[in-house]
Amino acid sequence: MSGDRIVEGWNYTSITTQNLCCRWTISEFHLFLEEMQGCITSPTFSTGGNGKWCLRLYNNGVGEESTDYLSVFIVLLRSLKTHIWAKFQLWIVSTEGKKVLGMGTRRACKFLPDYECGFKRFILRDFIKDHMHWLLPENKITIFCKVTLFQDQNRDPGIQIPRWTMTDELGELWENSLFTDCLLVVAGQEFRAHKAILAARSPVFRAMFEHDMEESRTNHVDIHDLEPGAFKAMMGFIYTGKAPDLHNMADSVLAAADKYGLERLKVICEHALCKELTVENAAHTLFLADLHSARQLKTQALNFIRAHASEVSETSGWKTMVGSYPHLVAEACPSMAFTNAPVLEPPLKRLKTS
């Protein structure tokens, strides 16, 4: 008789469903249809530990096949799980308060964090314009979303996993200059940092420290074209990945992000500058976007200028652009490209490169 033991285990998994709903109302919807490009995002919604979700509405579709449509997507922003299976339905709420023109998924989709799924051709833009009395009560559109979550329920051992704190700990290394191995000098101010972190986050710093350059040999970097405030905002982002406070310096941080190859920080700056677009600063914003290859910001600035051409053309920034950067004038308003407006200011200064 053998001494082998047979061990049996009894495991039990049940699949349950849970519904969560979101009602998203957008005011002054005609402005979105007529003036805005790109997308807008709803407030987040969630239920317990099932992650945070939002809706995204694209004005001119997603891709060439949907340029005449509104596209609507649901996005999983954050989840404690590696993925979530979910089905969803979307409707427009009519003037009578009824859910109409609905679309839904037949099968559950596998959502990962930052993954979006939806309908590129949700509804024709012209159909909304032709039925505004039915779909836009008081010039508002309301989109109703129902999400059905599929969850597998296993026995929970009850162990609490500590909060992820690495970004805080890396930020502390920077804030307190702990275990540093290089010196950066900005406008006469000295800052101590870590070559490994700089090289991991920035391709420019990586090239600087990888090759036989003076900065690599001396562990000393002189930075001549940044102000300390913008530099510290950039370094905080490098160490923690968190969006910095860009108040009154989004343009300077955009320049820093462009120089050091920090693409996500560039887009954060583009977003901040888009929110601050005015008639007075539109021409300068267009120049910045072109100078730093900020594609999304340039698109928004061009659209803004075209929509307010008569007002923008009277500003000193525009007249400076006519004299110094006619190629941008041609992009913004081709009919005004050869206007002989006087130059009221010296040409816009370009960022120095070290």
Q: Can you describe this structure in just a few lines?
A:
With 354 residues, the chain is α+β, with helices and mostly antiparallel strands. The protein contains 15 helices and 13 strands.
How would you describe the overall organization of this protein?
- The protein is of the alpha+beta class.
- The chain folds into three domains: 16-152, Apoptosis, Tumor Necrosis Factor Receptor Associated Protein 2, Chain A; 166-267, Potassium Channel Kv1.1, Chain A (2-Layer Sandwich); 287-354, Serine Threonine Protein Phosphatase 5, Tetratricopeptide repeat (Alpha Horseshoe).
- 36% of the residues lie in helices and 26% in strands.
- It contains 15 helices and 13 strands.
- The protein has helices at residues 29-35, 125-130, 132-135, 166-175, 195-201, 203-210, 214-218, 228-240, 250-259, 263-275, 282-291, 295-307, 309-312, 316-324, 326-332; strands at residues 14-26, 39-41, 45-46, 52-58, 69-78, 84-93, 99-104, 109-111, 115-124, 141-153, 182-186, 189-193, 220-223.
- The strands form three sheets. Strands 1, 6, 7, 8 and 10 form a five-stranded antiparallel β-sheet that branches. Strands 2, 3, 4, 5 and 9 form a five-stranded antiparallel β-sheet that branches.
- A hairpin with a 5-residue loop joins strand 6 and strand 7.
- Helix 10 (263-275) packs parallel to helix 12 (295-307).
- It is flat.
- The N and C termini lie far apart (82 Å).
